[in-house]
Design a protein that fits this description.
It is a single chain. By secondary structure, the chain is α/β, with parallel strands linked by helices. It has two domains: 196 residues, Periplasmic binding protein-like II (D-Maltodextrin-Binding Protein, domain 2); 241 residues, D-Maltodextrin-Binding Protein, domain 2, CATH 3.40.190. 37% of the residues lie in helices and 12% in strands. It has 15 helices and 14 strands. A hairpin with a 5-residue loop joins β8 and β9. The longest helix is centred in the last third of the chain and has 24 residues. It starts with a helix and ends with a helix. 41% of the residues are buried.
């Protein structure tokens, strides 16, 4: 590993020198000695193509602080110069209006960007209106390992492929944050969840055993002051479902959506499992008058063992006074491996009147090059970690938990977000309301869900 890092540093130095030469009017020397995708005498010139990647957030402009991060930056500068193109993220709208901006600009033949990140909630409506170019026939092989196979399957409709994503994003994946200090004070090894996860013994029962043990009156005041869970019902139900092999929406071999929850025993098992958080009085109570997202502040107070949240929630816990770890949601009785739920914003190319197959091919070719690993790191399976360690309280969160998500083998893409107006909260928000059973809530919600599913299929396939 040290040798790879040293080689990587030498490559960065050589690359910097080569770019300096290029700025003086001479051809830049490839940092890998010429083994780029095209031979030097047949470089694909993109003619100064400028590619905005339209997003609905403020692009990250933080300067890299690691050798790997600097190598990525240097490689991207080099590859743009070599193939004569530029690419950059640009905020082209807010979350609420971004899809409408994409549609309006595409119809006007003045696309707001040549690649757009699209919220999955708006994918079907934009496909219905022919807003995305079919990228399935372009020269870039979207079945190669670098591309997200879950997105590849989800974005196949009626013979076309309308979106792509590189890699498996951990940021929106459901995980379990846990308070090491709470576990230690209750007599548990603070690394026990990691150890159980590594041994594939991190199960619902194991988590519940810890939660029951830590829920107690630790100060002998007659009032419970430490809890197993401080969490939000919707996120918890979603994570529990996928951890047991259940889901709300599936997609059949024709590409049509279907109700995957109705009649699913795995679904009802997961619902009852989460309901037990309240039945067994393991939940930290919501303060009177608190906002719906009170659970973030509640967990920060340090009086609960577990919080179910997306991975990006780590940024809420940078300054908490306790130590924390992060594992996947434990597996349910119907699963033999751990599985995280996640959602993904989809990369798309606009299908405006002036868009040609040649231009679309150039856009995807450039994006493919831009998102490759830099020279010296192509075979370094740990390169992606180097910029992440500083954002966690321990290295095992990166080496084990994030690594599992990014492998693509321990995560599944939410498909319910692709069905317009589909609302999983019809069941998830009511999990701790004991006026109805899980089966009753599911039956009631399914009547509405089936209508939304049928509407989505009609809009894409013209189903009756």
């Amino acid at each position: 590993m040290k040798l790879k890092r040293i080689l990587g540093l030498l490559i960065v130095i050589a690359l910097t020198l080569s770019l300096t030469v290029g700025c003086n009017g001479e051809d830049p020397v490839p940092p890998d000695g010429g083994n780029q995708p095209d031979a030097d005498d047949n470089i694909r010139d993109l003619g100064g193509l400028n590619i905005d990647v339209g997003v609905f957030w403020s692009p990250d402009t933080t300067e890299p602080t690691t050798g790997y991060g600097r190598a990525v930056l240097e490689y991207r500068e080099y590859i743009q110069e070599k193939h004569n193109f530029t690419i950059q993220e640009r905020e082209t709208g807010s979350h609420g209006d971004h899809a409408d901006t994409i549609a309006a600009s595409t119809l006007a033949d003045k696309p707001v960007a040549l690649i757009n990140k699209v919220d999955p909630n708006r994918v079907v409506s934009l496909i219905r209106n022919n807003m995305f170019f079919d990228v399935g026939s372009l020269s870039t092989d979207l079945t190669a390992p670098k591309w997200n196979s879950h997105v590849h399957a989800a974005m196949q409709f009626d013979g076309g492929i309308f979106g792509f994503v590189q890699g498996y994003n951990q940021f929106n994946a459901g995980v379990v944050f846990y308070n090491k200090d709470v576990l230690r004070e209750a007599g548990f090894d603070p690394y026990l969840p990691y150890d159980l996860q590594a041994a594939n013994e991190w199960t619902w029962d194991a988590m519940m055993e810890i939660a029951q043990a830590v829920t107690r009156d630790s100060r002998n005041t007659g009032i419970i002051d430490t809890f197993g869970f401080c969490t939000f019902s919707n996120r918890t139900v979603l994570s529990a479902l996928f951890s047991n092999g259940a889901r709300f929406i599936g997609k059949d071999e024709t590409g049509r959506f279907y109700n995957a929850a109705n009649g699913s025993n795995a679904f009802l098992q997961a619902f009852d499992h989460v309901r037990n958080f309240a039945t067994l009085e393991l939940l930290q109570p919501q303060p009177e008058g608190a906002n719906w997202d009170w659970w973030r502040d509640g967990f920060r107070e340090g009086n609960a063992a577990f919080l179910i949240y997306e991975e990006y929630g780590k940024d809420d816990f940078t300054n908490v006074p306790f130590n924390w770890g992060m594992v996947l949601y434990p597996r349910g009785p119907d699963m033999d491996t751990l599985m995280a739920i996640y959602y993904e914003n989809i990369n798309t190319i606009p299908n405006n009147k002036s868009m040609t197959a040649e231009l679309a091919d150039d856009i995807l070719f450039a994006f493919d090059l831009f998102t490759n690993e830099p020279p010296g790191y192509e075979d370094d399976t740990e390169a992606w970690k180097y910029d992440l360690y500083e954002r966690y309280r321990d290295s095992r969160a990166v080496d084990e938990t994030v690594a599992m998500i990014r492998s693509g083998n321990h995560s599944q893409l939410r498909l319910d977000q692709f069905v317009p107006s589909f609302e999983p909260g019809r069941v998830a928000w009511e999990v701790w309301n004991f006026e109805a059973t899980g089966a009753q809530l599911l039956e009631e919600a399914s009547q509405e869900w089936n209508e939304h599913i049928a509407s989505a299929n009609r809009s894409i396939f013209g189903d009756d």
